[in-house]
Write a structure and sequence with these properties.
Helix content is 40%, strand content 12%.
């Protein structure tokens, strides 16, 4: 700062103090002599090359989880997931459930988390809800065997099949982001409220958002009811079917021959 600037600020403070107190305070009885500040060069940080994929800090180990585009595969990502101990779910799980499907899927299907059957087998959507999901996908010519990949927000079963906590979801988020990055699906289908709200970082409910297309990092995204909700309430099957038909129509626009 220049001496003139210091002098100006000093006089403003002095006048303000006098106006408030009605007299000149002791601190302002003798005017000081001001000098220019000495400018010292600031060391510039060295630029670091950005990784080809975003770094996501590991909450437990403190090390960044980095996926390099050149060599990453879904298998290499899933190996990281299987060895994860980032949150308390790792202590209660039987098996990690990274995901299942083809390596270059048209569609990535995302649920909330493994249930008892999934925890037992280490595979996603294999219980009653999973069997219904397979039928739902088959109705629009999709399957995990030929053109889909199925994953979850969290990769370990929450006890008693409760919703994953925000901390648990956040601990797994970099893994899901990495899966999306390497799989590069043409579209994403979120099953249920938990998947919708976590992927889009929103509090909007499934009833309001289902059946609508939004952009997720350049990928068309839709949410519909979770299969387990359809098992509990059959009245939801009709709107879920309408959602799937709209999803198929959008997919046909992107990949006109996918169902042939």
């Amino acid at each position: 700062m220049k001496a003139e600037q210091k002098e100006t600020l000093y006089q403003i403070l002095k006048k303000s103090s006098g106006a408030l107190l009605g007299y000149t305070a002791k601190e302002f009885s003798v005017d000081p002599q001001f000098a220019d500040d000495i400018e010292r060069p600031v060391a510039q940080p060295q630029a670091q090359a950005a990784p080809s994929y975003a770094q996501n800090p590991d909450p437990v180990q403190g090390q960044p989880f980095v996926i390099e585009s050149a060599g990453a595969t879904i298998d290499s990502v899933n190996k990281k997931i299987i060895s994860c101990a980032r949150c308390g779910l790792s202590k209660t799980r039987r098996n990690v459930v990274p995901g299942e499907g083809v390596e270059n899927p048209l569609v990535l299907v995302v649920g909330e988390g493994p249930g008892a059957d999934e925890d037992e087998q280490g595979r996603p959507f294999v219980g009653k809800a999973g069997q219904l999901l397979d039928k739902m996908l088959s109705a629009i010519n999709l399957s995990r065997q030929k053109n889909c990949y199925i994953a979850n927000i969290v990769k370990c079963r929450p006890p008693m099949n409760r919703d994953p906590s925000p901390e648990e979801s956040q601990a797994c988020r970099s893994f899901l982001d990495a899966q999306i990055h390497v799989l590069k699906p043409k579209m994403i289908l979120a099953m249920g409220r938990v998947a919708l709200q976590n992927l889009l970082d929103t509090s909007i409910g499934i009833n309001k958002m289902r059946g609508q297309f939004v952009d997720f990092k350049g990928i068309p995204f839709m949410a519909t009811y979770h299969p387990s909700a359809l098992l509990r309430d059959e009245s939801l099957k009709r709107p879920a079917w309408e959602d799937l038909k709209a999803f198929k129509q959008k997919l046909l626009e992107i990949c006109p021959d996918y169902d042939k």
